[in-house]
Amino acid sequence: MVARVFLAHQVNSLVGLYDVTIITNLKDNNSMLSNISNKVKLINLPVERNINLFSDLRALLKLISIFYKNKFSLVHSVSPKAGLLTSIAAWIVRVPSRFHTFTGQVWLTKKGVNRCFLKFLDKIIVALNTDILVDSFSQQDFLIKEHVLSKGSSVVFGRGSISGVDVDQFQPSKIYRNLIRKQLKIKDDCVIFLFLGRLKKEKGVFELVEAFKNVSEKHDNCVLLVVGPDEEGLKQELTLFLETCNRLVRFVDFTKTPEKYMAASDIFVMPSYREGFGSVIIEAGSCGVPSIGSNIYGLIDAIEEGETGLLVPVKSSKLLEIAMLKLLNHDKLRKEMGLKARSRATSYFAQESITLKILQFYKRSISE
Length: 368
Known about the structure:
There is one protein chain. The chain has 14 helices and 12 strands. By secondary structure, the chain is of the alpha/beta class.
């Protein structure tokens, strides 16, 4: 999913310059990468999201073998588990250029020994790579403060994000707005609050449904639209919690066309506990949709407070409710923020610009 959503444009741009290989857990689902050029070589590597010593050791040994046989000039890893295994394997084989992109820290919400151990693993990643990329300035500042990075040892491209946003794909569309609302049986004048992402507790979904439940008691002309895979099996619990307002809630599984749901919506909501940047907020903004997000590193780069959206304290369903009511009750403010969000996305986060900076970084590293 990471390769499909965030890396496709970069990979397809690299194909004309280099031989490119993607190593990922395909799960017998090559169609997930249908937007990747067929000139790209795909290698399946069964990596589990959670720590599993035997499975992880097998994956590490396979990576070492792949790197040794292919003699890569550059290896670039994304995501914590893949980043650690890739960094170790690439260092053992002595791949000349070794990149890793930090997109958020899993240890941010942990405590005690667990936090220290996972933080130590990130320090290993930093030590074994030749270059570290970070997808937001606030995350970079956090990593420096936590002594994972030193000043000047990492790079943020442009204003941040891992890949920017395709401003032509993500744009306001009356066609999609009418189509999705018709499919989901939502009235044209109804205000849609959209959550789009993996259904996980740390995404703030419980705070979101609690806030929406209270909002719906004051206004019945609104709908909560939840789009994304149910990774932790939370849908049933969330549905039970929303029992009194189920008629105002719609659940949609993973979609390959998120722009359709964004164009159909009025307010994007992401009350996450942790985010590296919040690319989905920029995508919603590019569709002319303002956002409400947690006041955490990463999201403070994606939302310009009071201009393109609102920021609320993390885990505060009450303050989230107040922010939702504010944008629900003020049509003019909501629309003005949407216009500013679209302008900011096209000015600072256009995909072409971010990809160009990344390609230049690759060229310089390989030539050196």
